[in-house]
Amino acid sequence: MFLSATLSGAPLSAERPRQNPLLLPRNPNIIFIVVEGLGYGQLACYGQKLIRTPNLDRMAAEGVRFTDYYGAGPVCPATRYSLMTGLRPRNTTAKDADPWLLRVKDWTVASMLKQAGYSTAIFGMWGLGSQGSEATPQKKGFDEWFGFLDPDHASEAYPSFLWRNDTRLNIPQNAAEKQALYANDFFTQAAVNFIRSNVKTSFFLHLTYTLPDPKRGLLNLTPYSGEQWSQEHKTLAAMVTRLDKDVHAILAQLKELQIDRNTAVFFTSDHAPVARAGIDPEFFHSNGPFRGGVNELFEGNLRLPLIARWPGHIKSGVVSTHPAAAWDLVPTAVEIANMGAPPGMDGRSLIPLLKGESVKDRGPFYWELRTQTNHLQAIRSGPWKAVRSVAHNQLELYDLRNDPQEVSNLAKTQPETVAQLVELMSKASK
Asked: Does residue 100 form part of some domain?
């Protein structure tokens, strides 16, 4: 069932098929597509010039593209935690991700949606709890689970086994380090099968690809094999385009089953690209126009792509410049399911922004990262962004409205704004 390594979807035509009226009265379906290490600037609709992403570009043209969307932190587990709970990540260190693992008391988006009668599934990388713990997918609200439990296992692009619920499913084609079947192809096929099986019920699908993180590798470099680039750059570009085709397969299936108008799809990344051997981040301008790298809290390491598509319910071709963050997607899904958000959630529903309604400024947005040698904090309130190194007693202030590249430090000329943001940092860090 899951061993189809070649996927092809029907073309996404401009003509909209007639919807089955028997399917429309139920609660809308919801799909989160979360990819690993895709930078703000790696999609053509976000300014990419070399890598081809026609399907994601079309998804953006048919929906809403966010320019000021943020991950929950500078590393993968933080954002995955927020996308699952609607909460800001708990304080942690760079080398200890345990606080980001789900706790017994943590409700997940799947747990909430099951209360509204949704079928739930997650395919791809989990990374929020180990086998045998109380934080595995099937114990956190998911009816179906297939993929990698931990990030170390997920580094295998051609794995010899994957987890399916509580069962270890061996892949003999990849035994003895053979590279026959690519992991992400399994997840796309599983997603297509799940959608088909639940065409008459409301469903929530959380699809967590390990593409396009370069350490996952890819043997087929189409359509870039002939480019005069390094092997590493051709591989990265091929992975992004492969991902684009996977998204096409999902959207095409929704259209074929005539449920695309009853399905809200969100596409985003879990963190900015991490430097790998042989890859120059400037080659593809992977972080777009922004500065910042790993273990930093500048825009280039926090700002990510977010695209939402829900034909007939949200406006098409909209570019939203309102700030949003990973913890906003859970309350958004809960509102789509016509449920009331539980108290204590840090996020706020994006539905008003998706509908093009005027909203008041959000704020503040807070991030932090503790390492063995430093404690970094960052906060955004309106157009103002402050970045502080506690260990070095340094604070930088930027006006993102006029300086999104964070070049001109205004801390010395804006003491009142600095004082306000420091106070907000103090409150947010407690």
From this structure: yes
Residues 184 and 138 in one domain: yes
Question: pTM here?
Answer: 0.92
Please tell me the predicted confidence (pLDDT) of residue 121: 98
> How buried is 136 (Cβ within 10 angstroms: 0-12 exposed, 13-18 middle, 19+ buried)?
buried
Residue 398 belongs to a domain with what CATH number? 3.30.1120.10
| Per-residue pLDDT reduced to its tens digit, 242-282 | 999 999 999 999 999 999 999 999 999 999 998 777 888 88
Q: How many domains does the chain have?
A: 2
Q: What single-letter DSSP state applies at residue 105?
A: T
Q: Does residue 36 belong to any structural domain of this protein?
A: yes
Residue 139 scores a pLDDT above 60: yes
Closest CA to 257 of 27, 22, 57: 22
Strand ranges in 229-374 using DSSP code E only, listed in sequence order: 263-269, 303-309, 318-320, 324-325, 365-370
The amino acid present at 290, given as its one-letter code, is F
DSSP-derived pairing of the beta strands 384-389 and 375-381? antiparallel
Q: What is the CATH number of the domain that holds 35?
A: 3.40.720.10
In a domain, 12, yes or no: no
**Tokens matching residue 352:** 């008003």
User: What length is written for the chain?
Assistant: 430
> Does some domain include residue 383?
yes
Asked if 299 and 423 sit in the same domain, the reply is no
Enclosing domain of residue 59: 29-358
Residue 262 CA to residue 19 CA, distance in Å, equals 9
Q: Taking the alpha carbons of 139, 366, 332, 41 in that order, is the dihedral positive or negative?
A: negative
Mean pLDDT of the chain: 89
Q: How far is Cα 368 from Cα 356, in angstroms, rounded to an integer?
A: 31
